[in-house]
TrEMBL record:
Residue ranges annotated for the Cytidylate kinase domain, each copy included: 4-217
Protein name (Swiss-Prot/TrEMBL): Cytidylate kinase
Gene: cmk
Higher taxonomy: Bacteria, Bacillati, Bacillota, Clostridia, Lachnospirales
Enzyme class label: transferase
Its EC number(s): 2.7.4.25
Length: 220
């Protein structure tokens, strides 16, 4: 079984790149961020404040997140409900960024993520895959891009969906999320010592995917 870990900050294009690579290599793609977003959705629905660690700890006992695949596409199941289409809002993303710092939230998903890696060739992306979830991954990639590029990508994505967007607000939000992810006490976002740094700022999706595949060919 082979495993590829892709880490990096919000908006670096991890999910898009990971899906492209997984398809080319015929690996199973595991979007760990979607798992944290599913838990965040539960907290929001339960009207739990992200600062209330005791309430979040208690709620974790009632949350079951699982991953299934339909026609090759990952589906995220929260307590029996398919929430794949409900977890991609800014509100859920911000809640996920804040609550993923809690040990109880990370512990709830860690075993599931590691067990997935034992069952098939997988490509997993997130914030701490190479440093914490899959420290023995065959290939570790740290994918990044400038704040300006990441904000513009997110802006274009929202506009394309017909949603209102403010580029300056998005840029500021990304800076805040970077700070949250990099300074949290539990499994902070950082580049693993043995990870390959890939800056996608001036690259197309295909160029990034090909770069990662070339790196994988070296370790096969």
């Amino acid at each position: 079984m082979y495993s590829i870990a892709i880490d990096g900050p919000a908006g670096a294009g991890k999910s898009t790149i990971a899906k492209t690579i997984a398809k080319k290599l015929e690996f199973i793609y595991v979007d760990t961020g979607a798992m944290y977003r599913a838990m965040a959705l539960y907290f929001i629905r339960s009207q739990i404040d992200y600062t209330d660690e005791a309430a979040i700890d208690a709620a974790c006992k009632d949350i079951r997140v699982s991953i299934t695949y339909e026609n090759g596409m990952q589906q995220v199941i929260l307590n029996g409900e398919n929430v794949t289409g409900q977890i991609r809002t800014e509100k859920v993303g911000n809640m996920a960024s804040k609550t993923s710092a809690y040990p109880s939230v990370r512990a709830a998903l860690l075993d599931l993520q590691r067990n997935l890696a034992k069952t098939a060739d997988i490509l997993m992306d997130g914030r701490d895959i190479g440093t914490n979830v899959l420290p023995d991954a065959d290939l570790k990639i740290y994918l990044t891009a400038s704040v300006e590029v990441r904000a513009k990508r997110r802006y274009d994505e929202l506009i394309e969906k017909g949603q209102e967007a403010d580029l300056a607000v998005i840029e500021e939000d990304i800076k805040k999320r970077d700070h949250q992810d990099m300074t949290r006490d539990i499994a902070p976002l950082r580049q693993a010592e043995d990870a390959v740094l890939v800056d996608s700022s001036g690259m197309t999706i295909e160029e990034v995917a090909d770069t990662v595949i070339r790196e994988f060919e070296k370790v096969k």
